[in-house]
Design brief:
single chain, alpha/beta, six-stranded mixed β-sheet, four-stranded antiparallel β-sheet, 23 helices, elongated
Amino acid sequence: MKMDSKSSSSPEIFPLVLGGLLLVCNIAFTTFTLWVVFRKRAENHEQAQDAARKEEDAANGTGEDGKGKDERFGGMGSKRSSWVFGSRIASKRASSADTFAPKLNNIQEDDAAEEVTIKEEEAIMSWKELSCSYPSKRSGEPNITTLSNVSGHIRYQELVAIMGGSGGGKSTFMDILSGRKTLGNLSGEMSVLGTEMSPSSMDCKNILRNVAAYVPQNEQFFPNQTPEEAVEFAANLKLGRDERGDHVRKSRVREMLDLVGIPVKARTRSIGGTLAGGVVLRGLSGGERKRLALACAFAMKPKLIFLDEITSGLDSENAVVVIDLVKKLCVNMNVAAVVVIHQPSYEVFSHFDRLVMLCKGKCVFSDKLDCIPSFYDEIGRAFPEKYLLPADLLKAASEWKPDPQRVQPNELIKSCGKSALEDIKGRKKPTLGLQFRTVLVRHVMNHYIRNVTNLFARVLIYGLSAVLLGLVFWKIGESPDGQDLQLFQAEAAFGAGLFLTQILFLLPFAQISTFFFDKNLFASESSIGLYPAWIYSLTQVVLETWVMSLCALLQSAIAIPMMSLWNMSISKSASFITMFSVFCVGGAVGNSIVLLTSILSFSQDFAFLLGSANVIFFLAMSGGFVPYPYMESWILWLQWISPIKYSFQAFAWSLLSGTSTAELMDQLELNTPPNVSLNLVILVGIFCLCSACSVVALSRQKEVR
């Protein structure tokens, strides 16, 4: 049948409004992104100039960087304590305070309202008979106990070591103390800053989340983030905006980086690491990454800090530097630190004030280091040379047998600091707007601007795909003399449109590695309460919608003219905007499905498998490959859950609506819903549903510890 007439009709309003709104938002967000980029470049240029000035001062012998490494770190290398039992150097804390005081005065002058006079000998945290057990997988067998009746306490400004052999319960004990334990049956008592609680209660976890910071064994940073951005990110989300202005916060961040010894030149360079997808970036050394992790933790102004294997992966010199730095920060910032450490050298071990030694979940020793000789007398073991002491302690612990007559503490030692706890609770919390903006800017810079493979490569691939399909289906929708398409031409154009629709649901699979990287990072950051799940999900939705609008705009600008996919019943501009809105919404739905699949999946391989299976099913039920009239009636109901069906139908209606060839839609049973607008409304609903499910699923993502 040949159509000789040219139809004329009014375009649908909703696709035009939606397409126009997407274009405006695209321009606005692109402008915002460019503003962020230029602002970051200006800040980096300022930092580079500052580094150049310091180098010049150092060359003249007048600058701080002209000092030796030990002096820059507060004299940590030149004033190590010579630890001897019974006579620890009394001036250790005094000398540390003297060297750090000038810099710390600058950092802490805005914290005067929070300072509380507390004596060093008072406990900041205590615990009694902490235990952890798991139900046995075999019925009738007793529970598996990983920690049993551990008691002790930590005093202000103390550096505490947790030691023991593999499987001794160190990680379990640390997770309980830091409020991060999510599995197991917990029992015992705890007291933190004057508040007694059960280790399994939500009050305990919430209080520790407010007053403590945690540094994992493997530091988690965005590889292309800068050290200054990492510290500022943690401070902004924990403390909120500084009321005196952003310049004050930036100044404090730089002073904190000075304290931990991050070189000025390195502060505007990438931290380094492995990007999502496997690209490796060079950046900070292992020791610098550890010190940066400390800067992020102390920038949140905690009262307690927990460090998991902080010296792992470091050489002996850097290990001493890091531990000495932790000790000095604890003393001068009135913070207590707990460190899980496997087998320290004597130089590292000598910096600790207190030791908790575990063996097979039981406490072998929990007291000051000065009491270790008494412990050796108690177990009848010869005291070793001091440089062999750490290794000998581990050996003694492995051979230790519980003494049934050993006296256990009857009461929980009371901790002090309720006023400090109230001050921390009374801090002004960051607004939701600040949290969203902070997370959004970090993702924009690190996932899209600095990660070339994520933004520019994606846009390029969409553009090249459109060019290739445009060449394959060159002028397939062109009609002589501008008349309506003939039926066979419309069917051919449908095939081209189906390929364009497939792109929207297949190319987002390239984001699975990025989504998994973010999911793991979110689990780590959510455990310390930096931001809620919906902020991360909303950030992803906004950014991916922006990227998809860029890709859809490029795809439309290339494919529509090359394939001549114009609706002849309306103007070309209206036809273009309608088709653009279809591609953009379809791409956003494809991204939201991939995001939800990534969150629900336990591995990237499974996410690829599950996602590809979904897309195959959605394509089969789209009505594009096999028309619905040729399918069995009992299977047709599955078409209603296929988002590709609605994307393909929206494309078909945008091409034929108002033309005499629209009868093809009835013949192929592509007439439900019967226009572009309703198909777009359903797609928007699917997008909102997937986004909401992503928020719920992400909020349930927790570190399993």
